[in-house]
Write a structure and sequence with these properties.
With 343 residues, the chain is of the alpha/beta class. Helix content is 43%, strand content 15%. The protein is globular.
Amino acid sequence: MRFEFPKTLLCIFILSFLSSACMETETFARQDKLGALFKKEGVTIVVTDSGLGGLSIVADAAERLSEHKSFRSVRLVFFNALFSNKGGYNSLRSRSDKIRVFDSALLSLEQRYDPDLVLIGCNTLSVLFPDTDFSRESEVPVKGIVDAGVDMIAQGLREHPESRVIILGTQTTVEEGRHERMLVQKGFLPERIFHQACPDLIPYIERGYDSDETEMLISAYADEALQSLPDPGAPILVSLNCTHYGYSLDLWRKAFLGHGAQPVSFLDPNTRMLDFMFSAETSGRFKDTHVSVEVVSMVKIDQAQQESIGPFLREVSPTTAEALADYRWDPELFEWEPYVKRD
């Protein structure tokens, strides 16, 4: 008698396999090379962002690497992947344009700095990265920031079972929906997840993260986000899924409180994305670690931006603040115009 595997069970097995195979995550590109990274004496780590938000990650990395002493020397490079001060990736007309421009920036980054590790300190660019040619062809380990944000949100939702989360981000981050898909794959109901796009906020933060104008805009977005909730009385988590937003954390707190809400937590993944670099096994390999920081940008970083972001960075890492003040302007940093469709 021939045994036949029940068709229902077979279907369940196939669906289960496909589901697990398609689980969306931000794994390291060339993860096998990550272990070799921590065996080196000196490394070059490049942090990239579409603006100056990622400098907060550089500042945190500079201090933590110096304290952790896992390398003899670390060259930290902040590579500003913003291609125009007249409009960044969120202003481009198509997703394919965004991908091509970022791919060009990544290729230049690799050719110029030969990094041992690339950190994408930008949610917008992180959600685009898997579709770049660089993600498939480069041997460089790459880590985006989305995983860190999703992990923080998941932890908060578990700790507060009645809570909902408001995901704040750029238009591209919200439209891509990567955070929600990953949370749903972790078992959280879509009904607990809300989004709020914050167009035009980044340039205001860069020119005055605690200015009256920035405060007004943040207040408007906080109010709009709260209006979307079906039950205003339920506990809420507020997730800052743009690296710039952490600069204005005090204004976010003030805005939600001013609109009658008191979130149980504000989640900022900027620091969390670095945690994988600081295990007990790699701590104290050397007596001291020399950390250098460089900032390079193809768009000019004006005085107002430096005066806004500089003091914030100096409190965390004076070395990073000095690198911003001495940044290198390179208008030929990477090509972008050939990759943008025009009328």
